[in-house]
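ok, trying the design again with the full structure, not the truncated one.
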């Protein structure tokens, strides 16, 4: 059997160390389970800061920023220090911010200067003594050295005498610096020093102190520091022939285990001082130190400046363009002044002019009101109230205005609201945008050097990242860079949901009051025109799924322009590709964009996920995840100009073409039947068709807006090399952060993108390019040779498509993926017409896609030979197609039903394609329910367009039943594993930590006035999420908990928001139903990351869309080997056994209430009653009872599609409650709930004792994948 690459069978292409790495015991991140809201638990408080505390910390930052209200911040800070001592939220950078504020106040208030300086020295002394578990940093010592230089009693400038706190001179400070193993070079280069003169003075003071103390090494280090500050950076320093002569060739960096730099040294003598030498420059010193400490190049100023310009000037560029548009209209005499113009930019300019003035006035009024309220409540003992003005003053009114307008534009059509948005989402989004911009401004202000990602991952020897030494080296480099950049950055705090909503409400209220448009209508009878000024945005209520929902709607005139006008100016840089390689991921919240804060994981307001990720990052367990994200983000892309030109021509025509929606919906409105009032059936049919027509019209408008974003972004980046920073969802699946134009998007997005690097095709590359074209056209289930032959037969069509894409026969438009097909036609045509096709340099990404990848992982996990054959794990001459197999089975059933004169079967005859059943087959092993399958199939039938709208529901119900029945025992091995995963998750969700179990019976019960029914305490203690660790060390935490809502009164409406810092009991049903798909997704994410790392080590360009891996055509054979070898390495490590062992260790001391195991759960576990000490009566109660989570059938079962990103599930909680369908029970009588509770109360069993054994593994050997041509193809 030939190998996928067409050559003889070869040994594994990956390094042997990867096998060892994957077979090791993964280090687990284990944290305490969150405690119920009514429990005060020290570990819980430390890990999960409550919202009121988070609010107070945010108020502190807002009051310190710009010295808005330092006394108030100090008061809150002192209270937190006394009540939450040792809490990680009170970090060193917060203490440094207070010292800095005290010194600034001392500079401002001459009369009160001794008191402010006394506060600064007192706080420093508290840090130095270590009572509060906060250690001084280089920034701390820089600030105190600055304080001494400015105000010491012997100072010639402003001597101040302090008696209330111990003051430290440079000798004392240096002694403490050395004692804490901090490099003096980092102190004198700290951001606290803002001038060259101050930094020079600090170097002299510490050098003198070191000389007095006899510390020659420190004197040398400070001399080296001063020398580096006088070096002119040579633009040709990377060229081997031009090495700066004066610079020491070797500077040694001594580091602590936690990443701190403790010393800089060089063995080479420093040159003597000469006349006319370059003066000391603080910025030059910082740049050289960055390169030395980070052990890699940093972005050059000009390159970084371009990305900085993109990230920092988006608002100023937007306002300039809006202003320019308005001025041009005015010069041409066109009616843009006032709101007569229909141009979106002109409207936005007018709104901005009014809004910034309104915000400025309202903030001034707010400050006065808050001062009055503060005087009235000065004697109140209530907790600190959140005031808005400090948060609104963090940014200028102009920037607040632009943020509000642009966020409103970006939210258009979100959350399933036609031409509008949900109110709660709008409030949170605007608040988040203000917070993000404030943090970005702080980051830009600090001007920290950005490290450049490594070009190639280390490959062999001790530096291989899968060896112990290589992994440690990777960790040491990252931690050093992270520590260096964290110390260089100013402290900021995260805002709570409450603050975001209040800030968002204030700004939305302002824009809704001032933003207007003028609309003109003509009387059809008289021809008279009427003009009316209307609000651009309005608030109303809609009903969605039976629930009342507050929404903000766009004026129809604004909504219409959103689908027509250029809208790239309304995009924030966090929505755009980057112009430089993304910042390497240095920690869980530091990487990607240079200045806009990004997180390595997309946790949807789940504090538990964030805490786990942070601890795993700090423990050095995420090095390969961060390295994988760096690989994905550093792939260079370009816009495919030839495809873009065709797209633009189609877009401007306004016609429906190749998945681009028309400017004006072209579907005719249903005709109202004449007998509608007398024929009830005709009325129902008409109303259903009318509803469907309205939905299609709204979808057309939404799609048009989406395409508009893609076209405008592509236009903006024509000719540029762009990069797509990546992060992962909570399951570890990687996604580009820019949402609008990326390779993970639709066919149009993918067709517009091409690799920046071009590589010669070669013989194999030319063959793979042809196979790729056949795949895109939909001819992907034949053998490789047949696909190549298919392309040869259609060469005339391919040439015609490339030469005359719109004027010719348009063969490419009939492809499954037309725009990618067109791009491939153009590349193949250019190659075949070149003098040497094999030498043609091609940058088109060629794909290798898994065959129902979830089922591939299940088959490998279970050794399921039958399942493996269906999904191409086993070698075969032709690719297997499980979707066509099931579709054919359903067609046979339809033929049988037609003989029985079934009308639905007659309607569906010949219309059940593989596409109709694909999603349902794919998600069957993920636990898709009948209702879920029906909805999936209904969507596919509607897309076909050849089934009447009113019949789609009935037809989908019929098909769902037959598809699920046809699958039968086809995937029995996968079903067994799925049931095992489901049962494990159900048990874990019912478990309680032993220490909480003991405390819950001893703690007094708090009375609850609202609760009519007294629940057992153990039910409130069921807070345990399913947590597991991927083979790469990433902790996965399932976020499904009971939704806790907080009511917030705003000027627009009362909204209910979820509070991520308020823990609640887990949703056991969702934890169980979601675990199988989430676990499989975490495996396919691991496989992708391993492949990405290995491809980079081999020098291959790599990109991925979950289970679709992309590289150059000439590199496909190499990547195919790597894909197979990494899959084999992953599944040779006995993944399920590793998961089972982790559960036994992670939940070793967890107990399950016996009463929660009644019903099917007890039967499935096959527990022996005598082992549990149960009587026959107890056993009967458990087997005949019905567990709580079995009493309902949730129609919204979490069966996830392979490509579904569930991150968009709303945090706002205006969602329909799941329907509860009580199971029908037989006539037998069982005891009441109260009787069962009373009999079994207080009886618990160990979770690890009832974990079900692993399913029996089949005979399929995963190494056989090496011989399968069509595993990924």
């Amino acid at each position: 059997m030939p190998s996928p690459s067409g050559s003889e069978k070869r040994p594994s292409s990956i390094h042997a160390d990867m096998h060892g790495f994957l077979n090791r015991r993964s280090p687990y991140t284990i944290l305490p389970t969150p405690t119920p809201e009514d429990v005060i638990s020290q570990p819980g408080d430390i890990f999960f800061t409550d919202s009121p505390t988070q609010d107070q910390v945010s108020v502190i930052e807002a009051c310190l920023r710009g010295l808005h209200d330092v006394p108030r911040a100090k008061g809150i800070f002192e209270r937190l220090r006394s009540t939450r001592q040792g809490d990680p939220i009170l970090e060193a950078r917060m203490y440094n911010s207070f010292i800095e504020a005290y010194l600034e106040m001392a500079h401002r208030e001459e009369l009160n200067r001794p008191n402010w300086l006394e506060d600064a020295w007192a706080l420093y002394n508290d840090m130095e003594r270590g009572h509060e578990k906060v250690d001084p940093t280089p920034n701390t010592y820089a600030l105190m050295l600055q304080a001494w230089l400015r105000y010491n009693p012997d100072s010639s400038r402003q001597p101040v005498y302090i008696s209330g706190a111990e003051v430290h001179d440079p000798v004392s400070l240096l002694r403490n610096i050395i004692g804490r193993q901090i490099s003096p070079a980092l102190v004198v280069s700290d951001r606290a020093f803002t001038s060259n003169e101050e930094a020079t003075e600090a170097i002299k003071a510490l050098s003198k102190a070191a000389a007095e103390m006899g510390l020659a090494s420190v004197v040398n280090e400070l001399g080296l520091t001063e020398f580096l500050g006088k070096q002119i950076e040579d633009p040709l320093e990377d060229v081997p022939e031009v090495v700066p002569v004066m610079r020491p060739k070797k500077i040694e960096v001594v580091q602590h285990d936690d990443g701190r730099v403790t010393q800089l040294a060089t063995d080479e003598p420093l040159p003597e001082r000469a006349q006319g030498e370059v003066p000391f420059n603080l910025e030059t010193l910082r740049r050289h130190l960055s390169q030395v400490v980070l052990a890699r190049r940093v972005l050059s100023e000009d390159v970084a400046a371009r990305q900085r310009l993109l990230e920092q000037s988006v608002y100023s560029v937007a306002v300039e363009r809006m202003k320019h548009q308005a001025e041009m209209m005015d010069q041409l005499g066109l009616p843009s002044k006032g709101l007569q113009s229909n141009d979106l930019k002109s409207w936005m300019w007018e709104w901005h002019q009014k809004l910034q003035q309104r915000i400025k006035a309202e903030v001034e009024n707010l400050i006065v009101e808050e001062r009055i309220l503060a005087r009235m409540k000065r004697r109140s003992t209530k907790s600190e109230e959140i005031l808005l003005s400090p948060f609104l003053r963090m940014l200028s009114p102009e920037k607040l205005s632009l943020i509000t307008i642009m966020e409103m534009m970006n939210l258009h059509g979100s959350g399933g609201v036609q031409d509008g948005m949900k109110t709660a989402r709008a409030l949170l989004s605007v608040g988040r945008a203000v917070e993000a911009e404030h943090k970005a401004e702080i980051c830009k202000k600090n001007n920290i050097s950005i490290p450049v990602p490594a070009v190639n991952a280390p490959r062999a020897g001790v530096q291989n990242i899968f060896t112990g030494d290589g992994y440690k080296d990777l960790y040491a480099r990252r931690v050093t860079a992270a520590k260096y950049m964290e110390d260089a950055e100013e402290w900021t705090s995260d805002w709570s949901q409450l603050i975001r909503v209040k800030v968002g409400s204030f700004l939305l209220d302002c824009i809704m009051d001032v933003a207007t448009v003028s609309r003109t209508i003509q009387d059809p009878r008289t021809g008279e025109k009427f003009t009316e000024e209307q609000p651009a945005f309005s608030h109303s209520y809609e009903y969605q799924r039976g629930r009342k929902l507050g929404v903000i709607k766009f004026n129809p005139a604004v909504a219409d322009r959103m689908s027509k006008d250029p809208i790239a100016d309304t995009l924030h840089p966090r929505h755009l590709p980057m112009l430089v390689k993304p910042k390497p991921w240095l920690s869980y919240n530091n990487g990607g964009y240079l200045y806009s804060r990004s997180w390595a994981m997309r946790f949807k307001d789940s504090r538990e996920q964030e805490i786990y990720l942070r601890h795993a990052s700090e423990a050095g367990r995420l090095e390969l995840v961060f390295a994988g994200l760096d690989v994905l983000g550093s792939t260079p892309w370009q816009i495919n100009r030839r495809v873009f030109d065709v797209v633009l021509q189609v877009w401007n025509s306004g016609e429906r073409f190749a998945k681009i929606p028309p400017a004006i919906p072209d579907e005719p409105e249903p005709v109202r039947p004449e007998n509608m009032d007398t024929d009830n059936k005709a009325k129902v049919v008409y109303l259903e068709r009318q509803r469907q027509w309205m939905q299609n019209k709204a979808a057309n408008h939404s799609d048009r807006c989406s395409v508009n974003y893609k076209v405008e972004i592509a236009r903006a980046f024509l000719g540029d090399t762009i990069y797509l920073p990546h992060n992962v969802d909570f399951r570890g699946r990687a996604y580009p952060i820019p949402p609008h134009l990326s390779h993970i998007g639709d066919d149009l997005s993918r067709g517009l993108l091409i690799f920046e690097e071009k590589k010669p095709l070669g013989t194999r590359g030319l063959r793979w390019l042809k196979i790729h074209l056949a795949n895109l056209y939909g001819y992907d289930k034949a053998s490789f040779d047949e696909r190549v032959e298919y392309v040869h037969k259609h060469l005339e069509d391919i040439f015609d498509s490339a030469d005359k894409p719109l004027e010719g026969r348009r063969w490419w438009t009939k492809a499954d993926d037309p725009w990618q097909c067109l791009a491939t036609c153009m590349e193949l045509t250019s190659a075949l017409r070149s003098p040497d096709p094999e030498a043609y340099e091609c940058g088109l990404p060629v794909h290798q896609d898994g065959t129902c990848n979830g089922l591939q992982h299940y088959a490998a996990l279970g050794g399921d030979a039958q399942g493996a054959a269906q999904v191409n794990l086993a070698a075969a001459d032709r690719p297997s197609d499980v979707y066509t197999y099931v579709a054919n089975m359903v067609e046979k059933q339809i033929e049988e039903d037609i003989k029985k004169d079934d009308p639905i079967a007659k309607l569906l005859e010949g219309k059940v394609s593989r596409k109709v059943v694909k999603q349902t087959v794919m998600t069957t092993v993920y636990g898709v329910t009948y209702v879920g399958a029906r909805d999936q199939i209904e969507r596919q039938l509607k897309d076909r367009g050849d089934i009447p709208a009113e019949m789609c529901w009935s037809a989908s119900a019929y098909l769902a039943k037959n598809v699920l029945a046809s699958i039968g025992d086809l995937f029995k091995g996968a079903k067994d594993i799925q049931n095992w995963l489901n049962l494990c998750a159900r048990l874990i969700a019912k478990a309680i930590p032993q220490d909480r179990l003991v405390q819950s019976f001893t703690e007094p019960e708090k009375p609850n006035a609202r609760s009519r029914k007294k629940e057992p305490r153990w039910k409130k203690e069921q807070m345990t999420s399913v947590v597991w660790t991927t083979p790469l060390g990433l902790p996965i935490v399932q976020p499904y908990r009971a939704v806790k809502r907080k009511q917030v009164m705003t000027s627009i409406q009362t909204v209910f928001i979820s509070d991520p810092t308020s823990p609640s009991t887990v949703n056991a049903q969702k934890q169980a139903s979601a675990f199988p798909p989430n676990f499989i997704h975490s495996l396919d994410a691991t496989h992708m990351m391993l492949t990405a790392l290995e491809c980079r080590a081999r020098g291959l360009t790599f990109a991925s869309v979950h289970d679709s891996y992309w590289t150059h055509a000439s590199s496909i054979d190499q990547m195919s080997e790597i894909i197979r070898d990494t899959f084999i390495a992953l599944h040779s490590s006995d993944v399920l056994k590793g998961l089972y062992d982790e559960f036994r260790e992670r939940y070793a001391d967890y107990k399950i209430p016996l009463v929660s195991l009644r019903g099917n759960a007890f039967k499935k576990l096959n527990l022996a009653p005598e082992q549990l000490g149960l009587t026959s009566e107890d056993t009967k109660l458990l087997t005949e009872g019905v567990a709580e989570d079995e009493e309902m059938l949730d129609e919204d079962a979490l069966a996830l599609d392979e490509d579904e990103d569930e991150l968009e599930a709303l945090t706002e909680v205006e969602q329909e409650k799941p329907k509860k369908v009580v199971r029908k029970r037989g006539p037998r009588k069982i005891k009441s709930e109260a009787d069962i509770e009373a009999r079994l109360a207080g009886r618990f069993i160990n979770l690890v004792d009832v974990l079900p054994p692993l399913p029996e593994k089949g005979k399929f050997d995963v190494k056989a994948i090496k011989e399968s041509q069509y595993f990924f193809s």
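Keeping the full-length input from now on. The first strand starts at residue 252 and ends at 255.
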